Amino acid sequence: MNEAEFGNLVKRVAIVGGTHGNELTGAYLIQKFEQFPDLVQRSSFETITLLANPKAFAAGRRYIDRDLNRCFLQRDLLDATLTSYEDQQAKQIYQQLGASHDTQADVLIDLHSSTANMGLTLIPANSQPFNLRLAAYLGAVCPDVKVYQWAWSAAQSPVLRSICDWGCAIEVGAIAQGVLDAALFQQTERLIQAVLDYVEAYSSGSPLPLPVPETVTIYQCTEMVDYPRTAEGKLLAMVHPHLQFRDYQPIAPGDPLFLTFEGETIAYTGDSVTYPVFINEAAYYEKGIAMCLTQPQQIHIAS
Amino acid sequence: MNEAEFGNLVKRVAIVGGTHGNELTGAYLIQKFEQFPDLVQRSSFETITLLANPKAFAAGRRYIDRDLNRCFLQRDLLDATLTSYEDQQAKQIYQQLGASHDTQADVLIDLHSSTANMGLTLIPANSQPFNLRLAAYLGAVCPDVKVYQWAWSAAQSPVLRSICDWGCAIEVGAIAQGVLDAALFQQTERLIQAVLDYVEAYSSGSPLPLPVPETVTIYQCTEMVDYPRTAEGKLLAMVHPHLQFRDYQPIAPGDPLFLTFEGETIAYTGDSVTYPVFINEAAYYEKGIAMCLTQPQQIHIAS
After folding, report:
1. How far apart are CA B247 and CA B293, in angstroms?
2. ipTM summary value
3. 112-151 in B: which are within 8 Å (CB) of A?
4. Cα–Cα distance between A21 and A17 in angstroms, integer?
5. Searching chain B, which residue's CA lies closest to the CA of residue A262?
6. What's the rounded Cα separation, in Å, for the pair A127 and A132?
7. Interface contact A59, partner B, CB < 8 A
8. What is the pLDDT of residues A9-22, one digit of tens each?
């Protein structure tokens, strides 16, 4: 890697969990790292850990007042009239970790889980070369890793990871809310170690255990599909059994998307093959998202 | 069946869902039956439907103040000082459906879901012959049905179904909280139809589509096992990956139960083979239950 190409060295890495209080994988990994800080320390940078929404974690809920992971729009962080618990948390986290603060994080990893069958999904903070190379490297370390990108631009992004140019969210599943899945806990921990290895290599010039592949496939969100609903917003259908837990698998026009409560199938009416993800995520019922349609894009990594 | 053996005919069947607001299968089945009441009507009795915890359903939470399905101890129903939202709901439901009220239900079905892999589990209200025959019949209709019984006696039972001598809870899973699983929705609906067929045959003397088997296997809870915890109650371990989703499968002394956050296996130290159920149920973390150990018992059905 070429340091000049990417800017300054990394001084501080932040590992964040429990941004959603009922996503236990990240919250308990943070507790583990707080108990055994040596696990996440490296010689060339400092690692800090943060349980982002302790009140929601204690209550076993995604959030107390509003979704913390939608509180990081720049205009909201600057809006003094926003005073909900999560708005206050967001401002405090931004003060601690955001750019141009004394304690800013140069790399940030935010740990999430999903009731959808996301496997081990990486969501880079943006498309900067540092992040794309990281995604490609994690794919080499763990071939099951998928890379997903939302449709919003970095400037419009309301999510916690957007306060830092370098880093990603790690989204693992399928895990029910309020549950620890030991296998996915361990796989997530291994991914975090691989992220730290990558940063260490970048920062100190040490070699990586594996070479970074020349390309990475990113599943780019092209459309968010809501459940069929009445005019008042009441659900009319469920995710079709043929689609449940089949995240990242292709569907073609005419394939089943939904099943109404009366047993009628509703088919996909798009023009071409698509790859749905976040299928039947519990937290997205209220957001009007039954699934996100994606297109895989192969990206060449600058060497 | 011998009517004299079982007492009076059935006048009213109650189907209850949404007792826990984030268990969507039952709540949406109730909404469907309210929209299409003919689906659950039979000629020989009246069927009523009830969304038991509408506030918790609207909030997407198990409960608002306390677990509604633990509010039905007789002494709590009579305790005027208990005024939480769920205590009020429990008293109102008891007034409507409980024994010796004008609108009492003679048979009650309470619909639940679990993050544990409970498949289609029937939990009879008690061991009265009506309920055991019903359980045996449902096993004939659907060979995947399992029958489970808690350790508490009928008189000590705090659950909603205990207000009615005849009936059961239906517990389906694995389903994440806040999620509809279309396949399990349809299977639950078929089970409800089979319950109504059974009651109709009992009440009107009409023949059942299938004969009632002579025996039924009941998984009797013998012990509830909590997660390993610190003295302050903090979790020290997760359900072991080898055990996750393996409800109703036998484990022997020495088999893995838990995995600590540091990766150490904790084995089952009991004396003999047991069959754990409710493994890693999200709602039971706060109740101190990681799983329920059971012994299968074959019960002969009085003909």
Report:
1. 10
2. 0.94
3. 115
4. 9
5. B32
6. 6
7. no
8. 899 999 999 999 99
